[in-house]
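Exercise (ungraded).
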Amino acid sequence: MKFVLDGEHLLFAESLHKLLDRSDTPTAIRAWSAGDHGPGRRVWRSLAEAGVFALAVPEEHDGAGVLPVELVTAVHELGRHAVPGPVAETVAAAALLASVGGDAAATWLPRMAAGEAMATVARPYALDADAADLVLTVENGELHQAEPAGEARPSLDPARRLFGVTAARSLGKATESALDLGTLACAAQQMGVGRRLLEVSVDYAKTRHQFGRPIGEFQAVKHHLANALVELEFARPLVHAAALSYGTDDFPRDVSAAKAAASEASYTAARIALQVHGAIAYTAEYDPSLWIRKARALYSAWGSPSDHKARLMTLL
Amino acid sequence: MDLDFSPGHDAFRAEVRDWLRAHVPPGPLPSLETEEGFAAHREWERALGAARLSVVSWPAGYGGRDASPLEWLIFEEEYYAAGAPGRVSQNGINLLAPTLFEHGTPEQLARVLPPMASGEVIWAQAWSEPGAGSDLAALRATATRVEGGWRLNGQKTWSSRAAFADRGFGLFRSDPESRRHRGLTYLMFPLDADGVTVRPIGRLDGRPAFAELFLDDVFVPDADVIGAPDDGWRVAMSTAGNERGLTLRSPGRYTAAAGRLLDLWRERADPSDTALRDRVADAWIRARAYRLKGFETVSRTDDVGAESSVNKVFWSEFDIALHETALDLLGADGELESEWLEGYVFSLAGPIYAGTNEIQRNVIAERVLGLPRGSR
């Protein structure tokens, strides 16, 4: 029993954090929101060079093998920096393609591991189908290649561009665990979003002065921030445990528990971040608003807490 | 990173499970907040102690098994899964004993711990006073130096288990010139000594779960001072995290309660009531989160420190939510006496004792998040 991240996981996370700090993700997010995927693509390529997208790809397709603990560690950092693009969707697409195998896997997986191809999966909307090189959908348990249908539907999170899809060619039977890996990636992303929101709120409370003192001296503010920490602290082990149960019968149950808790904790952090910052965070031009909007969008993406609680009760 | 138990852990779990299966009383004991129930729970402690299962994490020399923190978590899981009785000794085991291990003399350890482990001496805490609750450093009860020891005077209150316990421990102002947290001494004293008046206080449901203590020139020998005189605040605070963290309300307790809640849902629930279904699922998720948090905590090599306050806020609020869900599942029967109702009444005190959750949130904000202390 050693239920904490290993030193090498922590070093990996730290290196991604530094890489993304240098990448100016807020600028990439705003460009992405305006339909310019260039800066976001550059961030993805640097993440691929760091090995992030190989973590959901089997070794036979030039990946690192599916490494769920490393994957949630990395995706947490992507959420912490609000990296735009179909992050969880690319993870799920890789797992889906690996499970159907054949030409589709051989064609796409090496390119996805290398960061050359971005993939998305409709759940039910296909996130960033305009940017993705491969669009997939699952209908009646069958994995299909798909085409985006119509214009992008605007999301609360401006960096999330959602599309309807039309199924085209069938690729084979979709496995539930591949979709669950995408759900788990979304939960890890949410944990990163929540963590960043707490970090910036604590920093703000230390520096913003009202009534002649930092607002972080006021108990009303302290208690909000403490509540956000409590929720995040108790969601994290659920995400880690779900990563460890990948490949076992407990995986769907643990993924649902993790996604429900991560959604709620991340959303709590967003509400508190907005309240602690006050009006400034209610503006689109202030960076934390990008994370606040993402927290609510991800709350219902890949299944809301209620969806996952309903599923959990059928699995217990 | 892994969540695997070793064969040694599995063997320990099996031994605990087998013993409990053979020895846990078939029905619930009478409430430990009654005289009859207190005696029954003391008998149970004796049985646990005889099997060296009352204090598994203590050294063998004092009645324990030198169990690791992980083994202690395993013990707690099995204990509550077996539906074993509440621990009437827990104030001594969780609050006093850790302080003695850190600050006690060998003589004190040898004298105090074995009878605590066997249930022969049950301890009550005596921290709060009428004017010193959250602001514990405002306490006014005094310890005055006399030949060979001290004379205690003053009033303590909200003293858990004191209605029927044997001995108490708490902080007293030993330097009359001192202010706040300076000049306090940590002392142990008998509750049946001359000059001690114990007035039980009925808790919310009327049961005497705690008491007021009136101390009138109560003599305590020097041997019952823990740590140095006037250094009591530091002595008490060095182990305050034990009360707030895992040990007071272990994850195993909630794992078992969430399992029973799930059984209740299966028996009683209307499957179309999705709001209640979500709350039952939420209880299961939170119980699992706390269980995993426990494994995370015992895996860490650094000091958890003020993070124990994060646990205290979590388990105390979760305990209420879980029992509220059970009462709601029971519908009109929810107000009738039951183990769920007993658990509910017990849970309501959680956000108040062991440092109110407001104090815990201040601790989290200042010592974990690094916010400025400022004025209150």
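Further reading is listed at the end of the chapter. For now, observe: Chain B has a mean pLDDT of 95. DSSP finds twelve helices and eight strands in chain B.
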